[in-house]
Amino acid sequence: MWTSAYRDPFALPNHGPRAAGAGRGHRTLAAMRHGSIPGARGRVRPLTLLGDPILHQPCEDVTAFGPELATLVEDLFATMYASQGVGLAANQVGEPLRVFVYDCPDDEDVRHLGHVVNPRLVEADGVVIRGPEGCLSLPGLEAGTERHDHAVVEGFTVTGDPVTVHGTGFFARCLQHEMDHLEGRVYADRVKGWRHRKLMRQVGRASWRRGSVPT
Ligand SMILES: [Zn+2]
After folding, report:
1. Is pLDDT of 27 > 70?
2. Distance between Cα 36 and ligand 1 center (Å)
3. Which residues are known binding-site members for Fe cation?
4. What is d(CA 174, CA 133) in angstroms, rounded to the nearest whole number?
5. Residue 210: inside a domain
6. What's the mean pLDDT in 50-66?
7. Residue numbering of the annotated binding site
8. What percent of the chain lies above the pLDDT cut of 70?
9. What is the whole-number distance in angstroms between the Cα of residue 33 and the centre of ligand 1?
10. Residues with a known catalytic role
11. Residue 184 sits in a domain of what CATH number?
């Protein structure tokens, strides 16, 4: 899960799915008229947390492009929005399948909204930037994580049509983060040195890690 938690609200005051730009408003109204807001028919599911085996093993390819897949995508959107995230992978709601959704701004504040089934990361290049990153599967935490500034993902829609997603900046980070989830990795696996040690200490102290109810 790519979450607002890693988006420093002070550094990026206008970013995120809750940003209320005029363009966003128009799109939302149009979607309402057509009854097509992503996640509107979805169910908010419990999120899996760091340490759950499903987050630490590769997901499987989707083989059936039927109503169950459409329901999963709707549930992913509903859960992502409920958690104020900007991306969510299927294994974060307990489904070990290669699917993720996103509603994420790039560095130019262009909104990117969609889903990908059976995605492949076909390009990840450009400069490597270490930026704050977090994840709803490690609630409340973030750490400087290195990512490429440009990424391209190819995959399919819920109806089986091919789709290509290009990302730069913050959205490229999101795409790489979600692709990692489907390979059984979390951002903490990419954090290095003292940042990793600090993050793991914070994980050890986290209330959700001790089995209490996250707030
Ligand atoms: Zn994540």
Report:
1. no
2. 25
3. 135, 177, 181
4. 9
5. no
6. 97
7. 135, 177, 181
8. 81
9. 32
10. 178
11. 3.90.45.10
On the question of pLDDT at 86 being above 50, the answer is yes
The predicted model gives 189-212 an average pLDDT of: 90
**Residue 37, in any domain of the structure:** yes
Residue 91 lies in a domain: yes
- Does residue 57 or residue 34 have the better pLDDT? 57
User: Is residue 210 within 8 Å of residue 51, measured between CB atoms?
Assistant: no
Q: Please check whether residue 79 lies inside any domain of the structure.
A: yes
DSSP state string for the chain: -EEGGGS-TTT-TT-STT---HHHHHHHHHHHHTT--TTTT----PPP-TT-GGGGSPPBPP---SHHHHHHHHHHHHHHHHTTEEEEEGGGGT--BSEEEEEEE-TT--EEEEEEEEEEEEEEEEEEEEEEEE-TTSTT-EEEEEEEEEEEEEEE-TTS-EEEEEEEHHHHHHHHHHHHHHTT--GGGG--HHHHHHHHHHHHH-TTTTTPPP-
Band the pLDDT of 21: cuts 50, 70, 90.
very low
CB 1 within 8 Å of CB 136: yes
CA of 186 to the centre of ligand 1 (A): 6
The one-letter amino acid at 15: H
Average pLDDT score, the chain: 87
Q: What is the pLDDT of residues 131-161, one digit of tens each?
A: 999 999 999 999 999 999 999 999 999 999 9
Number of domains making up the chain: 1
Task: List the shell of residues around ion ligand 1, using CB closer than 5 Å.
Answer: 1, 135
